[in-house]
Amino acid sequence: MAVFTRVSEADIAAWLANYSLGTLLELQGIPAGIENTNYFVTTTNGRFVLTLFEKLTADDLPFFLNLMAHLARHGIPCPCPVADKQNRFLGELNGKPACIVSRLSGKSVTQPTTAQCAAVGAMLGQMHSAGQSFGEQMLNPRGSAWRAEAAQQVRRFLPPQDAVLLAGEVEFHATHPLAGIPRGVIHADLFRDNVLMEGERVGGLIDFYFACTGKLLYDVAITVNDWCMTPEGKLDAGHTRALLNAYHAARPLTAAEADLWPIALRVAALRFWISRLYDLHLPREGDIVHAHNPDQFKRILQNHIASPNPPWL
Ligand SMILES: Nc1ncnc2c1ncn2[C@@H]1O[C@H](COP(=O)(O)OP(=O)(O)OP(=O)(O)O)[C@@H](O)[C@H]1O
Ligand SMILES: N[C@@H](CCO)C(=O)O
């Protein structure tokens, strides 16, 4: 249930007076999601999504809101923040930082087709290209320092062979960083549940709150590790090639990126193995329990280590 902070029709009607969005027609809580409170808001001017941020603070948010506005301006179907009458994207509602963004159409899929993988690859390539002209920077909060620190903290919960695998991988990536390849704005969490599909086309990319500045190939690896994975934790070669070829047509991959592809897949798997272990064993106070299974990413990581020639273009 992702309505942590209640908003009444009277609350939103008063809040909307700060905007040029017309008057409220309908307010509906959105049950999906685990981080923020989300409502669908329909006004006389259209369909929107209201988000109340439960953890991110008003200091964190301008990067994400400005990024979404930038990408939307470039034609990427991502939520576009609406400015209030003082021309600000960020407001406050019921004691929480809040914003209202455009509502996109489509539904997330769980078993993507080859054509849908290609559509996501193309959209990711376009997003990376459009992101090149975004002027703001954000360090990756789930980068190498975080990996080392979080791995240290979860180590004591693991059986010995998993602790060895984890420590070995953290060390490997600390000494084999993804160097000398293109950087830019990355989504960093483009899993299936963060893409709204309309048949074979992408209706929307959502949930930009892990976005940061990083290696573009790492973002491709995060996306492939979710979209192109079989239930056994191995890459589906057809889906992977479809996604990569469509990406390449939008933002050409380089020879240096080809060389680093196996390592990018490993470090992307490691990041989610660690975060899932951390959320399982060390949940933050007030976190609701959710069912992301760390073992799935352990298996993916082990399979990547065992197959050093993953599908490429
Ligand atoms: N701009 C949007 N347009 C259409 N639907 C949206 C939009 N933003 C959110 N949604 C819907 O709301 C649901 C929850 O949103 P989201 O995934 O951003 O939740 P969250 O709690 O912020 O993040 P998390 O995925 O980390 O739990 C999505 O699955 C989607 O159905
Ligand atoms: N996409 C993440 C959770 C949200 O960041 C995962 O599946 O572990």
Helix-strand blueprint:
Elements lengths: L8 H8 L7 E6 L7 E7 L2 E7 L8 H13 L17 E3 L2 E7 L11 H18 L12 H11 L5 H16 L7 E4 L8 E4 L2 E5 L6 E4 H12 L9 H14 L4 H27 L12 H13 L7
Antiparallel strand pairs: 1-2, 2-3, 3-5, 4-5, 6-9, 7-8
Helix pairs in contact: 3-6, 3-7, 4-5, 4-8, 5-8, 6-8, 8-9
Bound molecules: adenosine-5'-triphosphate and L-homoserine.
The site of L-homoserine (HSE) has 6 residues, from helix 8.
Describe this structure in words.
Its EC number is 2.7.1.39. The protein is α+β, with helices and mostly antiparallel strands. The protein has 2 domains: 9-102, Phosphorylase Kinase, domain 1; 114-306, Aminoglycoside phosphotransferase (APH), C-terminal lobe (Aminoglycoside 3'-phosphotransferase, Chain: A, domain 2). Helices cover 42% and strands 15% of the residues. The chain has 9 helices and 9 strands. It has helices at residues 9-16, 61-73, 114-131, 144-154, 160-175, 216-227, 237-250, 255-281, 294-306, and strands at residues 24-29, 37-43, 46-52, 91-93, 96-102, 183-186, 195-198, 201-205, 212-215. Helix 3 (114-131) runs parallel beside helix 7 (237-250) and helix 4 (144-154) packs antiparallel against helix 5 (160-175). The chain is globular. The N and C termini lie far apart (40 Å). It binds adenosine-5'-triphosphate and L-homoserine. Adenosine-5'-triphosphate binds at residues 2, 30, 32-36, 38, 49, 79, 101, 103-104, 193, 204, 206-207.
